[in-house]
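Marked as duplicate of an earlier ticket. Keeping the data here for the record.
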Amino acid sequence: MNAKKSSPFIIPALVGAFILAGSLIVFFQLSSYQAQIIESNKDDYTKVIENTISRREGRVQTISSGIIGLYGSSERVSSAEFDRFAQTILGSNSEILNLFVLDGSTIVESYPIKEYVGHDFDFLFPDYPTVVAGQKAMTAEFAINETASLVIAVPFGYFIPEGTILSEQYKLVLLSPIDDNEVLYSVAKSGGASGSVVELLQKEKDNAITVEYKTNLFGHKLKKYYDLRYVLWDASFEAQSYEHTIILVAGVVLSFVIPVLLVRTNLLRARLQEKSEALERANEELKKVEKSKDEFVTMIVHDLKNPLLPIKAYSEILLSQKLGQLNEEQAKRLHSISTSAITLQKMIQDLLDANKLELGKLRLDIQEGNLSELVRRTMSELEPEFRKKGVAVSLELQDVSCRFDSMRMGQVFQNILLNALDFVPDKTGKIHISLKSEGGNAVITIADNGIGIPKDKIDGLFAKFYQVSTDKNRRYGGSGLGLSVCKGIVEGHGGMIRAESDGEGKGTTMHIMIPLAGKSA
């Protein structure tokens, strides 16, 4: 008797466990992938910094070789000759602050700042770091002969100039080789604005990288070779866990909500079975539901990567009220579950496809076929959705043969059509689809009379996680990945996709082009 009473709870408990397990798998997979991306970004930036310093160091050494060569080719170099030669060299090296020629410690030549000539270098610049023309500077020394030497003054910002780090949010600090607390140079960028006053927060220090580069430039004031030590923090070094945290939280919530609803279903079925023969048909339906539920559990066992499909299916069955009437609160909760399941399903698939595209691992099974047949088949599958919303769809299709992946191009058409369906008005919405051969390409055009897109937003429409506006995102939802995936699929066929709109309230038109059969991609 106790076993019989407990049986309605066994399968819901298993369902909840499998949903939770699936969510945890997705969470940890995404976390692991993000950690790999962060490490890759750190390695890339380290190489950028090292390569940039190496090139800039080479330029300083080239300048020194030119000046030393000038003095080596003549017994006496006049001030005019020195100035002309220095002017030529610095014409393509405008970042150099000044060139000094010293006899002992006396400045005998200086360019472009001539008033330094005749002064004692160590008297003019007694401290380290040397301040030349109001800027902290490295003074790299090179021997010209036994008594004379060349000193090249370059600002510390010379080695990693602004613009080297191609990021919208970063902080870069150059530390003194003799004092870790002294900053020789710093630059930061946030939200497109740059600044030179940088303070690294403790959290940023924990996620920053330190790049140390030993140069072959001898410091006149430092009395040893310069050791450049940069500390770089970039926004991409910090884990952004909001996406997979949403998946995990939703999975945990669903792992409790779905079993509760399934238990209610089982208890309702038990009560209905006790009623009269007049309810026999309803009992048969409940048996079918029980069978479907077992199939649902089997599906989860064999496919943990996609646990949301059966969640959506069962939500729709319960919402149909074939198993009994639902009160307003129950129906509202079921609608919420169904919507969340669809959103999570698409988010997971879009994330996986987007990651495959970034890694170049999205494989296409490209075969020759009739593109118009694929468009008609996709329309047939979506026809109930258009009919439900009262949207009119018109077709203007030529028979066009192409080489394409039928499943993936169907995914592209379905994504764009569902987007159009979301944004056109009920009852008066119109969508026109045309397909024709033009200039060696199959050209598909999908035009709607929906809410349209501001012209200044169209360029970013196919970027990952892009949202046209915050308000519309709240109203219509979406992860901002669908069109990015569509772009990757179309370009994988050697084609292109673009959008156009005359502005808000004036509809949107999507253009897709893929090469015809027999044409090279």
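See parent ticket for discussion. Residues 289-305 have pLDDT under 50 and may be disordered.
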